[in-house]
Amino acid sequence: MDPYPVQPGCVSIRRILLFAAVGCILASSTVAGSGASPLEDRIDSLLRESYPADGPGAAVIVVQRGRTLLRKGFGLANVERRVPIAPDAVFRVGSITKQFTAVSVLQLASAGKLRLDDEITRYVPEFQTHGQRITLMHLLTHTSGIRNYTAEAAFRAVPRRDLSLGQILAFIKDEPPNFAPGSRWSYCNTGYVLLGAVIERVSGQSYEAYLRDHVFKAAGLTHTFYGGAAKEIPGYSRTGNGKWIKAKHINASQAYSAGALVSDVDDLWLWEKSLAEGRLMSPDLLNLARSPARYAEGREQAGYGLGWELGYIDGQPAAGHGGTISGFRTYEVTVPSLGLYVAILCNADRPRADPEQVAEQIARLAAGEIPSRLSPPQLLRYAGVYRSAPSREIAVAVEDGQLFLTPSGFSPRRLLAISAAGFIDPESADWYAFSEDSRGRVSGLEIRPRSGVATLLPRLAGRLDLAISDNALVRVGDARN
User: Which CATH class is domain 376-477?
Assistant: First the structure.
């Protein structure tokens, strides 16, 4: 939920991974506290650099394989009074709320009280669909085509007003859909507001009461609330001249089931644990929520399940969600293969460091993977042409001891080696892994995007190796392995 978006919904990719900074941290010998492991020291150092003590900061928890590596506050909870952030501080979490809404809908589906392929008009008949068949699944996966009310100018004119469902829907009721339901993906807070109304009308409880009785209690959450809490810290925005000011207040009814929850890092970790342990819904439903939804023709959509952002961190499957709401920016993610969970809650909507980017750097530290330099002969094994579509190709080339990737019609992108066959694009955070056939020859390139679905591209036999000269691809010799 992002009534005053930095980027709506915090779903779009916006990271520039700071490998140099991470390298410096790895080389340092900072001491985070007596008894801390080298990994804990490195994470602590990264976070202190990301959220300095002289401005708004973050509460952070890092858990790996059930062990808490770090639980700490960085920066100031109250800038004016110079009060530091405590690790148990409560923040507005914005669109992380969508996970709770999605789980509530899945609980009701499991109980037989609704079906995910039901049309929204079955539960909210007053909603204008403009003749389109829009299902609950479309709303959960952001494939409904409905206009996003938080992007409408009329909504931005009422930042403090208490809004009803009807008033929220009025912002978009005369606007035609952006596309046919199920044909595309577009982040939409309106869809999750409608899901909140469905929860209320099916359960007979308010959204707040349903979460309290069926979600918060079951997960053991004691510092997660709808709309606000006494311990919530103030949020900040930055002016054009770099000064921190108190952010505008957002009424909970405006964010509703798309982004009105507050929580702390401890409760978010308990939330993840309760989901993994099956205390809120079955493992099959969690797997559904964390699997890419499909478009109408069966093709997997990129980067989103049911309430979870999906992708890869350094090639490892990851599921999480970000949130931005006036004065706050948040991110939480789990990387199952690493047994890793990270939650970063910032009390600024434009913090000094993007919590999503910082979480990715923490994951890289936890994985023990840092940029390395491969020799030209090692890199040359991967040079060649890979088929990305019937009429499109990706060229992989070597220049000055570095690997470059060039999709058809685009400029070359430098890839950084993380392992002997794993590379990352530092601008997009996409991961590239080369595969071999039974004879040990490079045969394919798997692309694991930061947000999206992995694809395997075959290497074209008989094509020539490539190098880059003046940003133009030229042939330099026969393909080799």
Answer: mainly beta
